[in-house]
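Example record for the data management plan.
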Amino acid sequence: MNRMTGRTIIVGVTALILGVLPVLAAGGSSVPSADPADQAAEAYNRGLASRDKAWKLEAQAEASSDPKQRAKLEQKAQKEYSKAIRAFRSATEADPAMHQAFSSLGYVLRKSGRYEDSLEAYNQALELEPGYAEAIEYRAEAFLGLDRLDEAKEAYMLLFRDDRERASELMTAMQRWVEAHQSDPGELDPSVVDSFSVWVRDRAEISGNTARHESDTDRAW
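Corresponding structural encoding:
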């Protein structure tokens, strides 16, 4: 199951003054913050909470042997992803420069099957922060979902150069794609699947050899 590194963003001093934290007003409701950055942080954190709930529900679904229960849990997970979409959108509206929110929005849109929409969000994140490895990797998984294999390859090569851990995660996603499409290529020409399978196998081998070489070099020093 895919995982992200999105972390809770702490609201600023303005939030403490204006009451973004759960301080109750006389009427018993929380006092909203007038600071856009604090509003964005609050919305982002709500999105992370819903995303994490979705992950737990997906894990429960995977562990369930009851098809009806599994379907019910998956439906609940999708509802949490929908909540996360709304929250992350709110964060981007409050702070249009918040690249983490755009990347997280792309993730939950992709998990909801909305690949084209997710690409728009990832592209915005990368426009704001061109080297943001999380967005590069997850955008590549959206490319895989759309069978845009050349763009997924380009992303892998970039990550292999700059972020081996993210490259490894993308390689795992590519291997899953190959496994699924070898048994059912769908509308793709089987030769396209075979060609990509060879590329993935070769790159995985190169990655393993590179890791061993680097480990041997480190020991030599």
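Summary line stored alongside the record: The chain has two domains: 1-130, 147-221.
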